[in-house]
# Entry
Amino acid sequence: MSLHVVMGFGPAGAATARLLAEQGRSVRVVTTSGRRPEPGIEHIALDATDSRRLIEAAQGADAIYSCAAPPYPRWTSQWPPLASSARAAAEATGAVLVVLGNLYGYGPVDGPMTEKLPLAATGPKGRVRAAMWEQARSLHEQGRIKAVEVRASDFFGPGVTDGGHLAARVVPRVLRGKPVTTLGDPDAPHSWTYLPDVARALVEVAGEERAWGRAWHVPTQPALTTREMVDRLAAEAGAGPVAVRRLSPAVLGVVSVFSPLIRELKEIRYQFDRPFVVDSSAYEAEFTVRATPVDEQVGATVGWWRERLGATGPVSGAADV
# Structure
């Protein structure tokens, strides 16, 4: 039975590990704190920046999935050593390194984003993400490792909570019929990548040698505005129309004084102030994974949140989230 090592057990890491287990693969998840075993998944605790220990954990692996992510305000300091350790493990074991990436590396662009765009990010988070892939790609081209990157837009779907722009700050409020506040222009087209599609793409490219050595965009449905997505969520929840309000720059400035997360989000305001559209046609022309229909995405997401909150319908009389 082939061994697959998943670094991180956040939404993407958990979805990937569970998909692999469902397929009958042997799965080992590496996290700092570890977890109790679950069917088909071994959890081990180690500091993944310790390349020696990560190499030991990845011995015999066919693939290493780099899905771990430091806290958002510490990306620039903590991600480079984590990525370096993953590359070292791939080189030492011969496992293909499957990197979960995002679209920050492109920086602000005009028009849909394709994989052919240069990595021209102007902010520190975008630059660090771009550098991580460039280093992996360079090692791949030297024949020292096998590497592929899968880039997703903003995660959406079951399992996505605090880190999602259509998650903890939105869906519980929609279920309660409460107004939703957005980071940028709620009427700007925006690509939302469904989390189960992320996992399916990561697993697919791991086994496709022709995918290696470059980056691919996760199959993603055509862009919808935040307002359109909220309307769909509200309709699915039976909550009636929900007001969508834009967080003003002045309020954002005040909030950022007290919130490190909001302060860090200033770097990516462009992603919500203007169209932010991903083109995944290159992936779809080569491989089999397709984006889940939006109605299915919305239905599964509302159902997951209802179960999480213990709600069977629109919640009334509950405290604001």
Observations:
- The CA atoms of residues 66 and 99 lie 5 Å apart.
- Confidence is low (pLDDT under 50) at residues 312-321.
- DSSP finds twelve helices and 13 strands in the chain.
